[in-house]
Amino acid sequence: MKRKDFEAKAKKTFKGSQLKTLARALDVAETAHRGQKRVSGESYIVHPLAVANYLIDWEMDIDSIIAGVLHDTVEDSDLDLNDIEEQFGSNIATLVDGVTKLTRVRRGMRDIDTYLPTTKDNLTKLLIATGEDIRVLIIKIADRLHNLETLRHLPRERQTKVALESLQVFAPLADRLNMGQVRVKLEEISFQYLDPQRFDFLKKQLKKSIGSAASKLDVVKNELSTALKTAKIPYQMDGRIKSIYSLHKKLDKYDQSFDRIYDLIALRIVVNNTTDCYNVLGVLHKLFIPVEGRVKDYIARPKANGYRSLHTTIMTYDGNDEEFFVEFQIRTHEMHEFAERGLAAGFHYNEQKLTDVYKQGGQIQGLPEGMNWVADLHHAAEKLQAGEAIDISKLQMNLFSDRIFVHTPDGDIFDLPDGALPLDFAFRVHSDIGKTTHAVKVNGEIVGFDEPLKTGDVVEVITRKGIFPRLDWIKKVVTPKAKTKIRASLRESGIEVKTEDNPQKPRRTEPGNKK
Ligand code: MN
User: Fold this and answer.
1) Percent above pLDDT 70 for the chain
2) CA 188 / ligand 1 centre spacing (Å)
3) What is the spatial distance between Cα 27 and Cα 155, in angstroms, rounded to a whole number?
4) How far apart, in whole angstroms, are the C-alpha atoms of residue 512 and residue 515?
5) In terms of DSSP bridges, do strands 403-407 and 459-463 run parallel, antiparallel, or are they unpaired?
6) Catalytically annotated residue among 7, 57, 75, 376
7) Looking at residue 12, what is its pLDDT?
8) All residues with CB under 5 Å from ion ligand 1
9) pTM of the model
10) Alpha carbon of 50 to ligand 1 centroid (Å)
């Protein structure tokens, strides 16, 4: 993006004095980065411009955008924080300082593992760097997004490292801020670098499934439209296609079976108010068969990141009398905006409200429901800086990913659910390897089959001919794939294992209806 286009865009949102300060910041950044190049060969200024451009898209306030323009000056040029403070005031200087600190904390961390709450010291640093002002984190996410988008210019080894870190740290952070669109972007790009073959395979599969669903989906849409018109509920309807990475995660949970994933396509119904949300749910359940256990009321009980919507999956029959499932997400316009853009949405309209968050001690006003962790983070950072102790376990932020990433000795990366055990890894690599596992080495040492794996572990499976899965292996795995394979092997050798009821399998709420 060229400076002139960027400034034209800023003009649409900001006024005279703000634009003047922004122009000054652009001058300062251009001078500071003069002669510096990105790995791509472009002049360095392209990067802060792109970062600030995202922040405009996300409707951040002018201070954040200026800080975005200046975000690499302290770290990568002769300017220091005092220069920034003198020229742009303490608010902007604080933001730039936070981003710089975060960069330094990151560089000081040897690998992903050191981010995790297990190492208290690093978490403390991270909290102090980000907790002062949540905008620091949003600027950092914009920075990361642009770095990911230009990742092709880096050597393979760096690509893997950046992609892994984005998946492990930045995407979950975007999720905690309920920045749904940004989270998906971070995940899709990262996953594409980490496992290109799997990414392409799933992309093709997804395309195929969606292609065959399109006409059936039209029938459902039409029936619903008619019913909503009769009920006189104004609505907007659109569809969202599941992202490749969330599909990958879900397939892992559901034993790689595409047929069991009901939300490849979800239809979104956006209405004017909460009452209409429940009305639409009523219309849907009258029209189609709701799948048991799939109705979620995130309006009455918002998710921890503040996400609100009603979810339901319905079942109907297509022309060939085959079962056909569709997921629905029902929400108001306001909930929709917040689900897509999260805390960043409307930052510059809500400036006052969000500034209050950092001023008030106890009860926080103006934070969306479910996002009190932002305030908790802030209070924790304040305490830490004052030298007081905090109980990290009470923070309940769960800031990090629910996946772990482990390596083979050859450097191949496999991701597994948090809590995965050595045999889960063995079966994940290949069933034949899993079945004949004699021992497992983690980081060069033999470990027990009940020792959970951690991100960054190098895992080596030692197989031996003549080994067969034993009954107690069932209790030493957490992934459905490993469980199924072990059960099958045991059955082959004549040992019958009781299959647990599968909670994911839908049951009709109206038995006997058709078929
Ligand atoms: Mn940067």
Assistant:
1) 79
2) 20
3) 32
4) 7
5) unpaired
6) 75
7) 93
8) 72, 143
9) 0.71
10) 10
